[in-house]
Amino acid sequence: MAVFNENQLAYIKTKFEEVDTDKNGSISLEELTALLKTLGGGEFSARISIAQFDENKDGRLTFDEFLEFAPTVENWNLQFPVRNACSSEEDNRCLKYGCEDS
């Protein structure tokens, strides 16, 4: 799971609440599609994101699942290291450029 500072977490929570337009505590495909359309994506991107981050496979993103999704949104400029399969989190090259699976 990504680690967030207090400001990042507050920003992501605000975004989650904005996207969760029906206020049921999770983000549907339609809600995520609407968000991604504002960022240059659309339904296809939303379907891929839900498939990737929906851990409980209910077709929606909970806040915890949204926390995993948030670093992938380039326009939010959260400045997170690349999430990858590197063996050492201290390897700056790996965090900056990614690495190959060994």
Automatic annotation (TrEMBL):
<protein>
    <recommendedName>
        <fullName>EF-hand domain-containing protein</fullName>
    </recommendedName>
</protein>
<dbReference type="Pfam" id="PF13499">
    <property type="entry name" value="EF-hand_7"/>
</dbReference>
<feature type="domain" description="EF-hand">
    <location>
        <begin position="7"/>
        <end position="42"/>
    </location>
</feature>
<feature type="domain" description="EF-hand">
    <location>
        <begin position="50"/>
        <end position="76"/>
    </location>
</feature>
<keyword id="KW-0106">Calcium</keyword>
<dbReference type="InterPro" id="IPR011992">
    <property type="entry name" value="EF-hand-dom_pair"/>
</dbReference>
<dbReference type="InterPro" id="IPR018247">
    <property type="entry name" value="EF_Hand_1_Ca_BS"/>
</dbReference>
<dbReference type="InterPro" id="IPR002048">
    <property type="entry name" value="EF_hand_dom"/>
</dbReference>
<dbReference type="GO" id="GO:0005509">
    <property type="term" value="F:calcium ion binding"/>
</dbReference>
